[in-house]
Amino acid sequence: MIFEVFIMHKHSSQEKIAAVHEALAKNSSLYDIAKRNTMSVNLLKKYLAVYRGYGEVGLLCPPKVTIDFKIRVTEWTIENDANEFEVAEYFGYTGFNNIKRWKEAYLKHGADGWKPKKMYKKTQNKNTQMKKIEKLENKVQELEDENRRLAIMTAALKLIASRD
User: Fold this and answer.
1) SS3 state at 97
2) Does the CA dihedral 29-32-35-36 come out positive or negative?
3) What's the chain's Rg over C-alpha atoms?
4) 3-state class of 1 per DSSP?
5) For a FRET experiment, which of 43, 106, 155, 162 has its CA 20 to 30 Å from that of 125?
6) DSSP codes joined into one string, 15-59
7) 119-150 pLDDT, tens digit each
8) How many whole angstroms separate alpha carbon 139 and alpha carbon 120?
């Protein structure tokens, strides 16, 4: 048995569409098409599934991955005992390895499985905002001190000028 290793890289929308059209024309085997396009047969099959579900639009505009999307995909995958090709066709999403991780988190923590990361980001953002506020407050204090110094110098110069 011969195993081939494909170097992973992102395929442009045009590359995906061209590979899918070539596969639909059935002039070559999926293996040959995948090899020519430096992708695995498995990935080509996922692109074909996305095409079946969404057409070229699915290959041009993959879905945005949000927490709600993760929950919907994970729940649907569990309820339907879906494989990676069914998920690709139904949701237009080819990242099945991500779905495996989402499923583990979901089964372990439920729909809240992703919230700790989100809460950490909020805390992190809050700390960053506090640092920015502190810097701005320091800058305001420096400017107020500079204004006082300039006011004193102006008053001193006026006093000197009035003596002449």
Assistant:
1) helix
2) negative
3) 30
4) coil
5) 106
6) HHHHHHHHHHHTSS-HHHHHHHTT--HHHHHHHHHHHHHHTHHHH
7) 555 666 778 888 888 888 888 898 888 888 88
8) 29
Q: Can you read off the two tokens belonging to residue 135? A: 């810097």
Residues in Cβ contact with 130 at an 8 Å cutoff, skipping those fewer than 6 apart: none
Tokens coding 158 = 């006026």
N-to-C CA span, the chain = 104
- For the record, the structure tokens of 143 come out as 């400017």
Identity of the residue numbered 74: T
Find the farthest-apart pair of alpha carbons in the chain and give their distance in angstroms, rounded.
Answer: 104
25: amino acid identity, one letter? A
Could you tell me the two tokens for 28?
């070559």
User: pTM for this one?
Assistant: 0.61
Structure letter (DSSP) for residue 4: -
